[in-house]
Amino acid sequence: MNGYQDGRLRTRWRRAARLFAAAAALSIGSAALTAALTVGTAAASVSAAEDAALAAPAVSGVTTGGAHTCAVLADGGLSCWGANYSGQLGDGTTTSRSTPARVGTATWVGVDAGTSHTCAVRTDGTLWCWGANSRGQLGDGTTTRRSTPTQVGTATTWARVSAGYEHTCAVRTDGTLWCWGFNRTSQLGVGTSPYVATTPLQVGTATNWANVTTGFAHSCGIRTDGTLWCWGYSSDGQLGLGSLGSQTTPAQVGTATTWTGVTAGYAHTCAVRSGTLWCWGENGYGQLGVSGTYQTAPVQVGTDTTWSRVGGSGDTSCAARTDGSLWCWGENSSGQVGDGTTTHRNAPSRVGTATTWTGGLDVRSHGCAVRTDGGLWCWGDNSGGQLGDGTTTQRSTPAQVTLLG
User: Fold this and answer.
1) Are 228 and 222 in contact (CB under 8 A)?
2) Is the C or the N end of the chain the one with fewer CB within 10 Å?
3) What whole-number distance in Å separates Cα of residue 350 and Cα of residue 370?
4) In this structure, is the dihedral angle defined by the CA atoms of residues 201, 203, 206 and 210, taken in order, positive or negative?
5) Given this model, what pLDDT does residue 359 score?
6) SS3 sequence, the chain?
7) How many CB atoms neighbour CB 109 within 10 A?
8) Do the Cβ atoms of 114 and 133 come closer than 8 Å?
9) 10-residue mean pLDDT series, the chain (405 residues)
């Protein structure tokens, strides 16, 4: 098969990502020895480290990039850590960090990390992006890499943003949807042209978009009427439209009007509908939560009807249930499923025994999630210091991260 389907581009992308992460790990150096961060494992008893964590500011949201992590604190502060080869930490350098560091002094309401760029919305409704920009994914009208947050236009009505591999999409408070960056596979939803957009382009004329999610070469979004729409490349059925090939503008997935959440992985998609969980697309690692080959239309994951939300942007997905339990599945080569193994899972595997996973969650080659008390826990690949524990040691179970105020 040609293009993305033959796997060659994907292999090159992953090899490059590993090289970047390895280089980033080398630059962390001795700073890790004096890191102002404590970590406690989920199985540990109350300790001085956990006491310190209790005093740290709570986290309201978290996002995992290719080899970096960012979190919005309850006080509105933003912290990032991990690989920084493209300036994706936003601290004005390209030096990697294995412990969290604040991004300026502004206050933020949401953040999303792409493979090597980051975008976030401030409390004043402005949108800012930083990091890699070779395909215009920062939306600032250039293809210049930025190591500090750079404003996207002048609008003050941005509500939420999703950063993909080399494209970005965002929703405004008026319900309009905008995308920019790489458009090789029509992942911007505006047709086949332009090939690259360095500033936001409106996607259609609909004014009822509620959220959006970006994968490697496709995007999906949910409207306020509960309908689900996807567009871009469908090498393995990741658009859920029952066929392979490209979709140049948003196309509705089935006829259901009860979708409440969706996440776009590398070449698969998962979504929640009336408490049930559905996935489609590539399934080489079991990332659909079922056995078998790729699926071009949504397939239900088990029979449980208490799923509340789902997250993930690689070949792994995680989802939480209304009882506060956390489950992950798919690729697990770096322990990103969080079940204490590195065995790929083709069905949801429970992450520990805690029932307090009611905050944000995200997973790629590493995963992070927030508990009821605002505590942040991360696990999986740590080659770029993205677990925030002052080391580059991989972890296959969640460890708590302390973000200093």
Assistant:
1) yes
2) N
3) 15
4) negative
5) 85
6) CCHHHHCHHHHHHHHHHHHHHHHHHHHHHHHHHHCCCCCCECCCCCCHHHHHHHHCCCEEEEEECCCEEEEEECCCCEEEEECCCCCCCCCCCCCCEEEEEECCCCCEEEEEECCCEEEEEECCCCEEEEECCCCCCCCCCCCCCEEEEEECCCCCCEEEEEECCCEEEEEECCCCEEEEEECCCCCCCCCCCCCEEEEEEECCCCCCEEEEEECCCEEEEEECCCCEEEEECCCCCCCCCCCCCCEEEEEECCCCCCEEEEEECCCEEEEEECCEEEEEECCCCCCCCCCCCCEEEEEECCCCCCEEEEECCCCEEEEEECCCCEEEEECCCCCCCCCCCCCCEEEEEECCCCCCCCCCEEECCEEEEECCCCCEEEEECCCCCCCCCCCCCCEEEEEEECCCC
7) 18
8) no
9) 36 41 41 35 39 65 98 97 98 98 97 98 98 98 98 98 98 98 98 98 98 98 98 97 96 98 98 98 98 97 97 97 98 98 98 95 98 97 98 98 81
Name the token pair of 345: 């899972």
Rounded to 5 degrees, what are φ and ψ at 138? -85, -15
Polymer length in residues for the chain: 405
- In DSSP terms, which residues pair with 328 in a beta bridge? 318, 349
Residue 116 token pair: 């090597």
Q: Which residues pair with 117 in a beta bridge?
A: 131
Residue 32's Cβ-count burial label (10 Å; 0-12, 13-18, 19+) is: middle
User: Are 179 and 169 within 8 A, CB to CB?
Assistant: yes
CA distances from 238 to 123, 206, 212, 235, 346 (A): 33, 23, 15, 7, 17
List the strands of the sheet with 68-73, edge to edge: 59-64, 68-73, 78-82, 97-102
Q: Please answer whether residues 379 and 334 qualify as being in contact, where contact means their C-beta atoms are separated by less than 8 angstroms.
A: no
Strand order, beta sheet including 167-172: 158-163, 167-172, 177-182, 196-202
Q: Which two tokens stand for residue 211?
A: 């959220």
Cβ–Cβ under 8 Å, residues 298 and 259: no
Cβ partners under 8 Å of residue 374, min gap 6 = 57, 58, 59, 60, 74, 359
Cα distances (Å, whole numbers) of residue 149 to 22, 91, 112, 182: 25, 8, 13, 20
